[in-house]
Amino acid sequence: MSLSRYFVLTETPTGLPRQDQFTLKEAHLPDLGPGEVRVRNRWLSVDPYMRGRMSGVTTYVEPYDLDAPMEGAAVGEVVASRHAHFSEGDRVRHMAGWRDLAQLPGDDVESLPNYDVPEQAYLGVLGMPGMTAWTGLNRIAGMQPGDRVLVSAASGAVGSLVAQLAQTADCHVVGVAGGKAKCEWLRSLGVEAVDYKGKDASELSAALGAASPEGFDIYYENVGGPLLEAALANLRDHARVAICGFIDRYNATGVVSGPSNLHQLLFRKARMEGFIVLEHWAHYPTFLDEVAPRVARGDIHYRESVVEGLERTPEAFLKLFSGENEGKMLVKLS
Amino acid sequence: MSLSRYFVLTETPTGLPRQDQFTLKEAHLPDLGPGEVRVRNRWLSVDPYMRGRMSGVTTYVEPYDLDAPMEGAAVGEVVASRHAHFSEGDRVRHMAGWRDLAQLPGDDVESLPNYDVPEQAYLGVLGMPGMTAWTGLNRIAGMQPGDRVLVSAASGAVGSLVAQLAQTADCHVVGVAGGKAKCEWLRSLGVEAVDYKGKDASELSAALGAASPEGFDIYYENVGGPLLEAALANLRDHARVAICGFIDRYNATGVVSGPSNLHQLLFRKARMEGFIVLEHWAHYPTFLDEVAPRVARGDIHYRESVVEGLERTPEAFLKLFSGENEGKMLVKLS
User: Fold this and answer.
1) Where are the strands (E) in B34-191, listed by range?
2) Cα dihedral sign for B311, B314, B315, B316?
3) What is the reported pTM?
4) Which of A32, A185, A255, B178 reaches 20 to 30 Å from B72, CA-CA?
C-alpha cells in the first residue's frame, strides 16, 4: 500500500533521449504528514515540453534533477488524506506523475471538475494541452471572428483543439499534419489539411498559399523549422504568430538556422510571441466554462494514444517525437 | 523658374545599388493647377527604407516605378501656390524629394511647426526617423520606467533618439554601434556602448551580457544578422523586440539565415513585432509635443551627415549602407 514506483532520469540526453536513460525505481513512502494526500495515479501525461526539462538547464521550466523522481501531470484517486479538502476516493489532478503512487501536499492537488467526460480528458483536451490551445488563440494571438488561422501539428493534442476553437469563431482554418491518416482526420472535422511530408519550405509555402490565397491572420506554432518559414511567407498584414512550441528543435544537437525570411514580420507589421501556459493559469476556469460543456456534449473531437503500464512511460514519451501518436499521448496505469 | 531636376531609377538593383542606376533628368513643370503648390526644396532626406522601394516588389511600401521621379521626404519653401492654406515663402515638408523643384497638391504638403530648431530637423530627429524611434519604444515595445533597453545602430538617426528617449524614462540603455568614434559619441551621451565590429554572434552576446548582466526588457532592432541572435540570447522574461528595420539584409543577394536561437522567444515568453511608422502617424502631434521642446532646448542631441548638391543624392543614399554616415543623412540643396 505504500510502495511507490517512479521514474528517474539517470543521464542528460543529447538529441533524442534513449529508453535506458530512464530508470524505474521503487521506494516505500513515509507515513502521511499533516496536510498531505496519497494518490493512486490512474493516468499519466507525457508532453513535448518535458524534453526541455531533461536538458539540465533552465529553459522556461526548471530542469529535472538527475536521479530524482520525475514530474508531470497525472490523474488519480485519493487513497489516504490528512488534508481537510480531500477524502479517500476523490478524483484529483496533480503534477506528481511518472509514478504509480504519489504523496504530496494537498495544496498542490486539484479536485477534478464534474463534467460528464472521461477523467483522462483533464490531462488532454480539458487539461494543460487544451488550455494551451485556448490561451495561444485568445490571449496571445487575439483571435477575431473571421480570421484566417494556420495551425501546425494540427492533429495533435493542442493543434486539434486550436483548429476546432478557431472554427467555432468562424475562422477559416488550415491545419498542417504529417501523413495521410492525420490529414484525413482533420478533413473529417472540416479543417483544410496540408500534409507537410515530402515538402521543403518553398513547397510548403506554395501549399499554404493554395490553401489560403489571402494568407493568414494567425499562425499557431508548435513545430518550427521549414514550416515556420513557409508560414512567415504567407502572413497577412498585422498577423499574430503564437509560439507554443518548437518541437522540431527539442532534440536537435547542432545549430538550427532560423527562418530566412524573418523580415516578413517587418513587411507584414506582424507580431510573434512565445508563451507558457502556466503564466495564464488564472484563466483556466474561463477556459473550462467555455470548452468543457462542448466536450461533454461531443461537439469537440479529440483523440488519445494510450500506452498501458507505468514501465512503458518512457516509450510513450519518445513516441511524441516519432510522429506516430495521434492526439493526446497518455499512459494508463492498472 | 519652372525647370525641375529629378532623379529616376533606371534599373532594379541587385545587391547594393550602383550610382549609374540613378539618372538625373530635368523637365519644365506645367502651370500650377488648382489646389497645387510649387516648392523649392532645400533639404532632401535619404533613408534606408528607400532600398526596399527599389526592389521592384511591394514590401511594406509600394516600389518606385522605373524611369519615374523618385520620392522621399523633403523640406523646402513654397514659391507659388494655388492652395488656400499656403503662400509664397511658407516652409513646408512633403514627400516629393529626390528633386530640386517640386509641384504637388497642397493637400499633400505640411507646414513646418514653429519650434526653434533648424528646418532640416523635421527630416530627422523631429521627422520620420524621430517618430520611428518614439513609436517603436512607446507603441510597439511598451517602454516602462526602469526597463533595460538595447538598441542597435545606436548612433544613427533613429537609434540615437531611441537611446535618449529611453534614458529620459530612467531606462538602462546599451547601444550597439560600429567603430570607436560612434561608440565614443554614445558614451558622451551616457549610453553604454558596445562596438559590434570584429565580433561574431557569440562574442557579441558575451559583450551584451557584460553590459547588462540581467539582460534586456526591450530590444530596438534596426540591423538583424548576428546582432539579433546575440540580442535574443540576452532577453529577459517578457521582453519586447521592436523591429524597425533589418538593414543587414536590405542589400543581400543570397539566402540570409535567421537567428539560430529563435526559441528564446518561447523560453523568455517574449514578443517580437515589426512596424511601419506611417501606420502610427496619427500620433505625430503627441510625439512632437513631447520631443520638439527638448530638441529646441538642446536637451536632445542629434547629428547630421550633410552632402551638398542634388546631383549627389544617390551618393548620400549609398552612404547609408557603408556605415560612414553619422546620424541623419541629408542632402542640402543650394
Assistant:
1) 36-45, 74-81, 91-94, 101-105, 110-111, 148-151, 172-177
2) positive
3) 0.92
4) B178
Alpha helices in chain B (DSSP H): 49-52, 128-135, 159-168, 180-188, 201-211, 226-232, 247-250, 264-267, 284-296, 313-319
Which residues from B are below 8 Å from A when comparing CB atoms? 59-60, 224, 228, 243-246, 249, 255-263, 265-276, 279
Residues whose CB is less than 8 angstroms from the CB of residue B111 and which lie 6 or more positions away in sequence, other chains included? B85, B86, B90, B91, B92
Running along chain B, 334 residues long, what does each successive block of 10 average in pLDDT?
94 94 97 97 95 84 92 98 97 98 97 97 97 98 98 94 97 96 96 96 97 97 92 98 84 79 94 96 97 97 96 96 87 94
B258 min Cα distance to partner chain A (Å): 4
Under a CB-based contact definition with an 8 Å cutoff, are residues A93 and A273 in contact?
Answer: no
Angle at alpha carbon of residue A46, lines to A44 and A50, rounded to 5°:
130
pLDDT score for B126: 98
Residue spans in chain A of domains classed CATH 3.40.50.720 = 128-278
A162: amino acid identity, one letter:
V
Instruction: Report the residue of chain B nearest A255, measured CA to CA.
Output: B260
Q: d(Cα B5, Cα B331) in Å, to the nearest integer?
A: 14
End-to-end CA distance of chain A: 14
Q: Please list, residue by residue across B176-199, b when 16 or more beta carbons sit within 10 angstroms of its beta carbon and e when fewer do.
A: bbbeeebbebbeebebbbbbbeeb
B266 to A256: CB separation less than 8 angstroms, yes or no: no
**Tell me: the pLDDT tens digits for A259-290?**
999 999 999 999 999 999 999 999 999 999 99
Mean pLDDT computed over A306-320 = 96
A266:B274 CB<8 A: yes
Size of interface A-B (CB pairs under 8 A): 95
The CATH classification number of B3-124+303-332 equals 3.90.180.10
Determine how many CB atoms are found less than 10 A away from the CB of residue B26: 11
- Name the minimum distance, in Å, from the CA of B152 to any CA of chain A: 16
pLDDT value, residue B121: 98
Read off the pLDDT of residues A81-135 as tens digits, 9 standing for 90 and up.
999 999 999 999 999 999 999 999 999 999 999 999 999 999 999 999 999 999 9
CATH superfamily, domain A128-278, is NAD(P)-binding Rossmann-like Domain (3.40.50.720)
Pairwise CB contact (< 8 Å): B273 & A261 = no
* Contact status, residue B70 vs residue B98, Cβ threshold 8 Å: yes
Task: Indicate the SS3 state at residue B45.
Answer: strand
Q: Are strands B3-9 and B22-28 parallel, antiparallel or unpaired?
A: antiparallel
